[in-house]
Amino acid sequence: MIEFLGEVADWFGDPVNWQGIDGIPNRLWEHFQMTMFSMVIAAVIAILPAIVLAHKKIGGVFVVAVVNIGRAVPSFAIVAIALPISIRLGLGLGFWPTLLALVFLAVPPMFSNTYAGVSGVDAALVEAGRGMGLTEYQTMFRIEVPVAMPVIVAGARIATVQVIATATLGALVAWGGLGRYIIDGFATQNAPEVFAGGILVALMAIGAETLFSLYERTTYSARLRRRSVGTADEGIVVVESVPH
Amino acid sequence: MIELRDVTKTFPGTDSPAVHRLNLTINKGEIVVLVGPSGCGKTTTLRMINRLVEPTSGSIVVGGTDINDLAGHELRRGIGYVIQQIGLFPHRTVRQNIATVPSLLGWDDTRISERIDELVDIVDIDTELLDRYPSELSGGQRQRIGVARALAADPTVLLMDEPFGAVDPIVRARLQEGLLTLQQRLQKTIVLVTHDIDEAILLGDRVAILNVGGHLEQYDTPAEILRSPANDFVADFLGSDRGIKRLSLIPISDIPLDVGPVVSFDASRAEVDRVMAEFGIDWIAIGSSGRLDGWVLASEIPASGKVSDATLRPFETRLDISDDLKQALDAVVSSHTSVAAVFDGEHYLGMLTMETISREIIQ
Amino acid sequence: MTVFAQSASGIFQWSWVQRNLDAIWDRTLEHVYLTAVAIGVGFVISLGLSLVALRWRRAYQPITLVTGLLYTIPSLALFAFLVPVTGLSVLTAEIGLVSYTLLILIRNMVTGINEIPSDVIESADGMGYTRSRRFWEIEVPLAMPVIITGIRIATVTVIGLVTVTSLIGLGGLGFFILRGLQTFSSPIGTTQIIVGTALSVFLAVAADLSLSGIQRLLTPWASRKEAK
């Protein structure tokens, strides 16, 4: 075992692994970029409709369905399906199917958390706002969204970690990213590379989770945050986190 | 029956004791109410009796046995316990809830079933509720089930912690009455905690007034406490309407009644004037022995002098011989005639005035 | 049927399905087996850790921290760590899968018990329940809805993750998804992806509904409302 860890350390020590397309900096950057792109696109798709629907108090059943479907369909399957779709759209392999799959993956938790967060805002606050003469738009963005922020950010955290994780499978559709080390390592039976890839991916995921958590802890009071952590039950699910 | 000897409780992490050297004796078959402001240790004291809270020092003896001689859970299976939110087990039916302690004690099914039938009668439970779950019951129903559950194993002692606090006043009054009726039948030894002095006076055979830190300020019958409060604290706690509260404890049947200014329909003007002058009033009541028909205003008696020609007004408030003086006072204060007419059914017994009423509490 | 299959033969070849029913069945069984073992073992471990966390409150945070960490590590990375040590085996797969169930199961078990109203606990004590009887007769039954919900979520999650084990030689229905991915340009490829995905989803939904039904059976009291 110790011997093996030594081999892993050697892998990290080898300067070859730090250069070029297959070098750690590049793969890290690819992975990071892909995560950012998919998160931004997913946010644009998911957040605004969720806010509006929650504000108008419609679509509850829809949200539950979205969450349950999102949970029932394996992320692996989503990546696999994205490939033929991407081909048929003329977008080819690699980047686009991966992006497609990741956006698809990130939308449900962001959508449902945003919805749950806005729905969960104390009706009295909204009432008070209306009473003061705020327009619907102002009520949404000056009262509901700020109060729902901890839950929305938690949704972003969950989605981000899931995206980082699933992006590793992008290697299977000819994309790059950190998953490359694991997949290629399996193929060439290069155990230290596989392990090293695992470490890099794990660190990135844990890093993202930690950064988000720290941000949440410092920005939002404990009482607000308590609403964002819940055991899922029959109704609207505040998605705690989804593994990948 | 229950003796608290020098009982003290100091919670860890606090400086001053919640209960300080309390000495209290509760006799068999009586209802003792512990009452006082927040922080007076009344609930803590109650919970020490069944060892949900362990005393820091001092001893408690129940029915001759020191409570420390038994295991905690054994002790509690022999003492009934009712709390404000009741705490019925949501996952069990009403029947199963009531059967809790008998089951823990190992009673066989037949015995439990018979006992439940008894309790349904004693506590007046709708049998339809027995197979429902607590979530299907109203607040008042839940309270009654809670009491039935506490009485299921027929304990000699019943502890109640603000049992009627969580329901609305109308239901509460009914439940309080229900408890008194129950007690008449069962003669349990009951220790009840409340923050409501009126409830204490209503329910308690004796009332213990506690001050912050578990200090016993006065321990006596409600009538005695109201008559002579031990100190300013007690007087304040009783409230500024202490005199009127005392009246609610005195039944009308305890005091002699005057027939009052009653004349018959065919009474002469002279007689009417004589009676009015004697009583110093501007009206006269009409009736005969055992009957009261109403009253008329002197100013409405016509020149002819015939009382029967005046408008006969009814006595709006009729008191029953079983009512108390506080109700009589209310009638006196709210009528033009300033009297309360007392009846036994339809039979007229006499009248009460402000003087006769206040005479009872001035002594 | 044949006409439909022909027109859709671009992406779905029913004939492939007919030819491979045995393989499909075997893989489905493998999928169910891997899931069942993971949930079973996960449940037992979680039960143990939950009892510890309930007995020693201070243990809860470290337990949550570790299981949370395991949960955050992407499955592929976790398998990447395990394969060099335990090889391409069912053990590797199970260690990985079990790790993902722990956080959810423990958290739901502990929260389920802690969320029981205090007046119910107080009245149980007042009636003379011993601590252990109280735990098994009052607390556990009342925590059931939350616990079973945790099991439901964990089960659906594991069913999804089993597909990833195809990369280490197992996969259950994920086997077809992987194969499909490798031959994506042919209709057989897409057929396999579709079959693998559809059946996975079916298993997940079936498991969720069955557990939901079991939940309702075990907790008749939870669905009654105030009649009055």
Question: How many domains comprise the coordinates of chain C?
Answer: 1
**Average pLDDT, all residues of chain C:** 88
What name is given to the CATH topology of the largest domain in chain B?
A: Rossmann fold
Secondary structure tally, helices of chain C: 10
Q: Helical region count of chain B?
A: 14
Largest sheet of chain B: 6 strands, mixed
Radius of gyration of chain C: 22 Å
Please tally the β strands of chain B and state the result. 16
N-to-C series of helices and strands of chain B: EEEHEEHEHHHHEHEHEEHHHEHEEEHEEH
Structural category of chain B: alpha/beta
Number of strands of chain C: 0
Name the quaternary structure: heterotrimer
- Number of structural domains of chain B: 2
DSSP strand (E) fraction of chain C? under 5%
The helix content of chain C is: over 70%
Mean pLDDT of chain B: 88
In whole angstroms, how far apart are the ends of chain B?
Answer: 34 Å
- CATH homology superfamily of chain C: MetI-like
Model description:
The complex is a heterotrimer of chains A (244), B (363) and C (228). Chain A has 244 residues and is mainly α. Chain A has one domain (26-226): MetI-like fold. Chain A has helices spanning 2-13, 24-56, 60-72, 75-88, 95-119, 123-132, 136-167, 179-187, 191-219, 222-226. Residues 228-242 of chain A have low confidence and may be disordered. Chain B is 34% helix and 24% strand. Chain B has a six-stranded mixed sheet, sandwiched between helices. A four-stranded antiparallel sheet of chain B has the order 2-1-4-5, with helices on one face. Chain B contains 14 helices and 16 strands. Chain C has helices at residues 2-7, 14-19, 21-55, 60-72, 75-86, 90-114, 118-127, 131-162, 174-182, 187-218. Chain C is elongated. Mean pLDDT of chain C is 88; it is low at 3-7. Chains A and C meet through helix 3, helix 4, helix 7, helix 8 and helix 9 of A and helix 4, helix 5, helix 6, helix 8 and helix 9 of C.
